[in-house]
From TrEMBL:
Gene3D superfamilies: Ras guanine-nucleotide exchange factors catalytic domain, Son of sevenless (SoS) protein Chain: S domain 1. Residues 84-213 form the N-terminal Ras-GEF domain. SMART domains: RasGEF. One of its GO terms (biological process) is Ras protein signal transduction. Keywords: Guanine-nucleotide releasing factor. It comes from Cimex lectularius. It holds the Pfam family RasGEF. This is Ras-GEF domain-containing family member 1B.
Amino acid sequence: MAMYYYACRLSAACSAASTSRSSPPPFQGSSRPHRPVATISHQPGPSRVDKVTTEGPSLCVNKPCKPLSDTRGVSSSDEALTYREGNLVSGKLEALVEHMVPTADYYPDRAFLFAFLLTSRLFVKPHELLGQIAARCQEDMLNSSKGDEPSSHLVRLVAEWSETFPYDFRDERVMSHVRQIAHRCVSAEEGAGAQEVREEVSLILHNLLNKLTRLEQYEAFLHSIRKDSITSNPEMLSQMEVQELCGTASNLAQQLTNIELERLSYIGPEEFVLAYTHNSLGIDSTFKDPRITSNLEVYQDWTNRLCRLVVTDVVRQKKNKKQRVRVLEFWVETAKACFNVGNFNSLMAIITGLSKLSVCRLKRTWEKMELFEKYKVLEKQMSKEDDYSSYRSLLRAASARFNKDDPKLSVVIPVFAILAADLYALCDHCLIKLSNGHVNFENFWQLAKRVTEFITWKQVHCPFPKSAKIITYLQATPVLSEDASLLASFECEQPETSEEKELQKRLLA
């Protein structure tokens, strides 16, 4: 809550916020020349760096960083930044930080800004990076004549940072720098310029506070529905069943998609890098800060919960094999409907649930199911074989068809565990420096490209109507623990093998 207190205090100190005034486009390009910061090396070669692109108001565009023309700020005989065909491919960390620093007539390229803010946290903490940028700008302000200060561009940098990576500003150390920046920038301006900076800073804080307040409310909601959601007592289960509540598999798939997109929308792009940093054995423990968000874990918890819900829904039908068959078929139809709308995460969770021992061992139930072949096709699409090659082909096809303006093509929800693993692998590559000590910025571009694609998908408004009753049920109704599910399964169909009999005996002990 300290962040909110200081944000409100700073907003008041910067005079009344002009909240009706439109915010400057966070990543609108600058026509002013690039800042000369370092010695530049140009390498010939056919390779090109993939550009970072996105839809939406808060990301970067597909502009490459341009070569700089002379030297400034990096005292080294080595070449500090390296370009190939106009694309930044590597650089010393201190030169890359210098490249971030705005002046009165220079503002960093938007694609570079996003890639570096995203990935630099593998090497430098966000509050330290902002502190270095602020210190250099303060030096420029002291050495500049009135009218030539970088204050407006520095405020713009804070605006774009807070728009794209707002959760960084939950850190009081970051907010401390923001307060200092606001004070310095207002002091550096005169007359109408000072008032304009006050209004810009107030608007930044107003928007930031709204985002962080929404996150806090969302976290409180999740906390309220987690209580007693997993039970070992079948009598604690709701009398209402999923099929009875939803009616059709298509409706259930649509409500699952609503939940998926809502939970995705709260994941900050930086959370993948911070989670990697927190868990990586290759990063010194003294560099690791406590996590200030848990949206990745929350999303994975939801995936695991959906898997448990599928299992619970099947094994609770202890005495009625026909009803168990109907429940199995309903979930297979739901999985197919998720496949059709592009909701691959729910699809994977359902297939995983149906593959759990407590369900897959019910041989007599599966034998009666008429949709077994359809299930096997879906199972194959989500198979681990060849590093999920079938799923990856499906995802590429869905991504190629993606159209946010077409309800039938606007949903692409990747399998979250696979996405996270892929991004963590890219973080591994980003950590590896070149033999000359340079950071390999080509790897930064690749990570930024993948994360930007994810952001584009998560910003989509769900095209399906929302049922609050169904969504609440799916997220809050009690589900059986793994042991309780196995015991219920043995009541559905008695154990046959010695292994199953031993397992049942152990669970009952």
